[in-house]
Amino acid sequence: MENEKWYHILIGYIKQNIKFLVLLAVFDGIFLLIFPLYQLETEAIWYASGLCAVILLIVFVCGFIKYHRAHKDRLGYMHNLLLSYDELPPAATLAEEDYQNMIKWLGDTYRRQKADYDHERQDSIDYYTTWVHQIKTPIAAMRMMLQSEDTEENRALLSELFRIEQYVEMVLCYIRLDSHSNDFVLQEYDLDNIIKQAVRKYAPQFIRRKIKLIYEPARAKVLTDEKWLLFIIEQLLSNAVKYTRGGSVTISLSDDMILSIADTGIGIAKEDLPRIFEKGYTGYNGRADKKSTGLGLYLCRQAADKLKIGIAAKSDVSKGSTFSLNLYTKEHQVE
Predict the structure, then answer these.
(1) Cα–Cα distance between 37 and 98 in angstroms, integer?
(2) Is-contact 188 223, C-beta < 8 A?
(3) Residue 95 included in any domain
(4) In terms of domains, do 11 and 132 share one?
(5) Claim to verify: residue 144 and residue 205 sit in the same structural domain
(6) With contact defined as beta carbons under 8 Å apart, do 107 and 78 qualify?
(7) Residue by residue, what is the 3-state secondary structure of the chain?
(8) How many CB atoms lie within 10 A of CB 253?
(9) Angle formed at CA 175 by CA 171 and CA 178, multiple of 5 degrees
(10) Which of 76, 191, 193, 264 pairs as cysteine with 218 (C-beta 3.0–4.6 A)?
(11) Per residue in 260-306, pLDDT tens?
């Protein structure tokens, strides 16, 4: 809109004022019909028509200049309409006044509805946040009871309880990522410490599923938010463990700060790969597993976008998958 060509505006002006051009043609037609009846000279007819045309041209040009300026002014107001619609320029016609009144009414209605929506949404966020923190207490109690006796049944129940904890944590992360509040605090962290937290959390799953972990220490500092980078790594490890049977998972960092988490699992179908970061998309593996929510990788992408780090995946069916995080960032500032 800002780069709209002047001749596009001219065409719009002509369409708006086409009735005046038609009116001029009608008057010329009247002159041609009436003047000969009174035996007036032909020059008088052309003189009158030419004079009308010149006057109309002057009025047309002046009107177009005013129309063009008003158009530019309206574009300027459009970018700030929600904030400044109460300060629209005075209406030049009754029609403009009617349109401005409609804009103001729509603006007031939008503000009321948005205030109601924000209030209801905040109530919902408060409820689920409270629920997440409350549900952690019985989960912790069940974990303690199951850990009191080391049996195969208890180990299986602990594994399922771990899945419940993951889903509960995912609810809280979903709420925080979808909120307008800034839950990100950027500082410089030791990348190995973040990776080791995720590895310790999933160590029982590695042992239970007999998966080998190959971890090459990163020995690097990274400017990020520890909590959210840890969440991304945990989700990628969760998927690696879920879809790997007796294979291995490798964690490594390249010289150009690309953190890779590679597994030797079942892989991702070629047709699913472009959509794995979409909300709710489970793909063939998720449908076969019947336990996938389709939210884990979606939340990873959302968190990565807010951290301004790239996330990508490549995979071969029956050979495994590799997820990569580009941790090189130059836009952040330490808070």
Answers:
(1) 47
(2) yes
(3) no
(4) no
(5) no
(6) no
(7) CCCCCHHHHHHHHHHHCHHHHHHHHHHHHHHHHHHHHHCCCHHHHHHHHHHHHHHHHHHHHHHHHHHHHHHHHHHHHHCCHHHHHHHCCCCCCHHHHHHHHHHHHHHHHHHHHHHHHHHHHHHHHHHHHHHHHHHHHHHHHHHHHHHCCCCHHHHHHHHHHHHHHHHHHHHHHHHHHHCCCCCCCCEEEEHHHHHHHHHHHHHHHHHHHCCEEEECCCCCEEEECHHHHHHHHHHHHHHHHHCCCCCEEEEEECCCCEEEEEECCCCCCCCCHHHCCCCCCCHHHHHHHCCCCCCHHHHHHHHHHHHCCEEEEEEECCCEEEEEEECCCCCCCCC
(8) 20
(9) 135
(10) 191
(11) 999 999 999 889 999 999 988 777 665 555 556 678 899 999 999 99
User: What's the pLDDT at 1?
Assistant: 45
1 within a domain of the structure (yes/no): no
Statement to judge: residues 57 and 161 lie in one domain: no
Residue 224, phi-psi category: left (phi > 0), alpha (psi -120 to 50), beta (remainder): beta
Joined tokens for residue 150: 């080391």
Q: Is residue 334 part of a domain?
A: no
- Does residue 53 fall inside a structural domain? yes
Q: Are residues 218 and 316 in the same domain?
A: yes
Residue carrying structure tokens 């320029």 = 89
Count of positions (residues) in the chain:
335
Distance between alpha carbon 190 and the CA centroid of its chain, in Å? 30
Which residue's structure tokens are 């790969």?
273
Q: In angstroms, rounded to a whole number, what is the distance separating the alpha carbons of residues 297 and 303?
A: 10
Is 189:221 a contact under the CB 8 Å cutoff? yes
Region 54-65: mean pLDDT is 82
Q: How far is CA 287 from the centre of its chain?
A: 26
- Position 90, amino acid: P
What domain range includes position 297?
A: 187-326
Would the pTM of this model clear 0.90, i.e. be above it? no
Taking residue 236's Cβ as centre, other Cβ atoms within 10 Å add up to: 28
